[in-house]
Amino acid sequence: MTASFHGVRGSTPCHGPEIVRYGGNTSCVAVQVPGADPILLDLGTGLRYFGAQQPTGVPFRGTCLLSHLHWDHIQGLPFFAPLLTDGAHVTIHAPAQGDGSSVERVFADTIKPPLFPIDLALLPGSLSFEEVGDSEFVIDAGDAGDVRVMSRIIPHVGETVGYRIEWNGASLAYLSDHQQPCDGSLVATAGALDLCRDVDLLIHDAQYTPAEFAAKCDWGHCTAEFAVWLASEAGAKQLAMFHHDPAHDDDMVDALVAEAQVAGAACGVDVFGAAEGMSVAVGD
Ligand SMILES: [Zn+2]
Ligand SMILES: [Zn+2]
Questions:
Q1: Which-ligand-closest: CA of 159?
Q2: Strand 28-32's sheet: what is its strand order?
Q3: Is the pLDDT of residue 36 over 90?
Q4: How confident is the model at residue 142 (pLDDT cuts 50, 70, 90)?
Q5: What percent of the chain has pLDDT over 70?
Q6: What pLDDT does residue 160 have?
Q7: How far is the centre of ligand 2, averaged over its atoms, from the C-alpha of 58 (Å)?
Q8: pLDDT at position 50, please?
Q9: Domains of the chain, CATH where assigned
Q10: CB 75, CB 45: distance < 8 Å
């Protein structure tokens, strides 16, 4: 399977010549199992670009594994052009909300006038919702066989899950927004470790420098050092640094990646910085 990065930025979209190499769109990764419908990791503004690449004339079918409901992870949905075709359908798995409100209701209340020109339900394509927590389920990939998915509740701000995807011996984990302990210690929940255990590719929050983390220690994110530590602790082979801070230009991300690569090399983790337009093979 492959993972293609369409949006790698955290918090808010950004633009400018200083960020063209990594890109300014927010979280969206497309996982493709050969012969199967796409699996989308989050619906940030990068989703619009993924949508523009889809074939026209045949209704889109796919699954989204949504980490949480923050804007930077859902804002691409109303601009996902395949939903303008009758018969298109996306099944969205998303974390159950602690206050009991349905995820479907949250989307319906967010994508409607006056916040958006029309009600979400008026788009020709359709959505269905599955609420998850510490869950395991299977995505039927037809002749390609089953794709096994694990979700685990992870620390962030508000209900958030990470995902692990396994298919045909290859594995990938996605923890886009992950709160490191506020004292800066290198400790993770059992669930986070379960997601990342021995994966071929870990896509992980790497938003802050140590100084930024110290100033924003309860904003729901972590340092690149924490991402490398978690990858190493869990036995992940490759780490994609993800959810780049909107205030970090390309040179700054390069510097963070270079530092993390040195740390990764010392513990057997191959590290790279996720960039828009990048596609990587997962597993052998
Ligand atoms: Zn985010
Ligand atoms: Zn978030």
A1: 2
A2: 126-132, 89-95, 61-65, 39-41, 28-32, 2-7, 279-281
A3: yes
A4: confident
A5: 100
A6: 98
A7: 33
A8: 98
A9: 2-281 (3.60.15.10)
A10: yes
Question: What spacing in Å lies between the alpha carbon of 146 and ligand 1's midpoint?
Answer: 29
Name the one residue in this structure whose structure tokens are 């969205």.
92
Q: Are 203 and 176 in contact (CB under 8 A)?
A: yes
Pairwise CA distance, residues 230 & 197, whole Å: 10
CA 192 / ligand 2 centre spacing (Å): 16
- Ligand 2 centre from 69 Cα, in Å? 7
* 9 Cα–ligand 1 center, Å: 8
Q: Say how many Å lie between the CA of residue 10 and the centre of ligand 2.
A: 8
What is the SS3 assignment for 107-156?
HHHHCCCCCCCCCHHHCCCEEEEEEECCEEEEEECHHHCEEEEEEEECCC
**Beta-carbon neighbours within 5 Å of ion ligand 2:** 70, 177
CA 191 – CA 271 distance, rounded (Å): 22
> Ligand 1 mean position to 205 CA, how many Å?
9
Q: Residue 144: its pLDDT value, please? A: 86
Instruction: Please list, residue by residue across 124-133, b when 16 or more beta carbons sit within 10 angstroms of its beta carbon and e when fewer do.
Output: ebebebbebe
Q: Give 68 Cα–ligand 1 centroid separation in angstroms.
A: 8
Compute, in angstroms, the gap from residue 69 CA to the centroid of ligand 1. 9
Tell me how many degrees the CA angle 172-74-150 measures, rounded to the nearest 5: 30
